[in-house]
DNA sequence: CCATAAAAGCGGACAGTGTTCACATGGATG
DNA sequence: CATCCATGTGAACACTGTCCGCTTTTATGG
């Protein structure tokens, strides 16, 4: 009985070596993360099963379950950064761009709640994984540079950091509250809420 | 060999019935949560052991591990609400009070990171536990009413909700980023960051 | 081209988990 | 005093992460 074989599944049942198990595990992990909401319920053995490989095989590519989750989080940060970097109306320095970044942030969280939560989970955020720290730092750098470009000389360095902190906090907080279903609101209201928060003047503080 | 016996431990090794297992489990759970940072690492069996009781005994008081965690979260919401309700300089309607609530929120998160995370974890926030929903709603009500009192007629209902959303998002986001150690900052800087965010004019949006 | 080393897979084992079950205990109620 | 019923127990089940020794494949060097 063949299991339905997704793209990341072992190519043939008779091939001993998988070929590209590393990325297959990543893909399977992301897929399971999307489908199965809860982070703590994602099992290393389950990922191995999805790829058609023994649990022990995973350890040839990731030193632990945490390392695998870390790799998933890195992928998440990359995708989020990409989503924020999409050009908006061709311009890259207007306040509109700042709003766009905030919108992209919240939308990403809503579209990938489990992945988003994983990215900021102590399971991985506490680890000193170099790739993870780099990918996360990219996000902060983008935001601070965008704020710097928009605010220009109107804000000194300290002011910029303050504005960046406020922006990030607000956008991050809204994302968390939304995906945790703390805000009991209709779907149709979500967009309005996002707009209320990504207002450039609010983000910049003037 | 006697284990060190905290207050919540079974009173005597020879007594069959515990007496007040329910609250003993809560106390032990909170204690373990504080000590052992990671939410997903807190084990029902571990809590049972700490109280000196068999794992199955827990199920006489909580229908599942999730139910136990839910009860812990409820306690968390109660404590947070209490912390926010402390009178500040005797006054209860000034903008200072709004800042105080924000400060209390972030401070609570920093002081009880695991509990705070649990309160907003999908493990419990997704459940329709009545007690939990009530305790959480209390928080929102307090905030909206405080904003209403401070802003007075200057804000219509819609404006108040918008301001409440912004305030909560910002304070919640800062809390999360802080306890997730995403903001690589010195301890001494934390207070300044909090102040930058709980500024009344920022919270109210004018 | 073949021997041999390294890489990448496997099954089995171990301790630990949440949960359920039949059963034991003992305080409260009649 | 007898009898319920809430509250405890211990054993079992299926599952988990992780390690171990072993097998299979691929790559490498003579």
Distinct helical segment count of chain A: 10
Structural class of chain A: mainly alpha
Please mark out the parts of chain A with pLDDT under 50 across 5 or more consecutive residues, or reply none: 1-5
Radius of gyration over C-alpha positions of chain A, nearest whole angstrom? 20 Å
Mean pLDDT of chain A, as a whole number? 88
Top keywords for this entry?
65% helix, disordered N terminus, mainly alpha, 206 residues, 0% strand, homodimer, DNA-binding
Explain how this protein is built.
The structure is a homodimer of 206-residue chains. Chain A is mostly helical. The first copy, chain A, contains ten helices and no strands. Chain A is elongated. The relative contact order of chain A is 0.11. Chains A and B meet through helix 6, helix 8 and helix 9 of A and helix 7, helix 9 and helix 10 of B. Chain A binds a DNA duplex (30 and 30 nucleotides) through residues 15-18, 21, 43-46, 53-57, 59-61, 64-65.
Short description:
The structure is a homodimer of 206-residue chains. The first copy, chain A, has helices spanning 21-35, 44-51, 65-85, 95-111, 113-119, 122-125, 130-151, 157-179, 187-197, 200-204. Chain A is mostly helical.
Describe the secondary structure blueprint for this structure.
Two copies of one chain form a homodimer.
Chain A (H helix, E strand, L loop, with lengths): L20 H15 L8 H8 L13 H21 L9 H17 L1 H7 L2 H4 L4 H22 L5 H23 L7 H11 L2 H5 L2
The structure holds a DNA duplex (30 and 30 nucleotides).
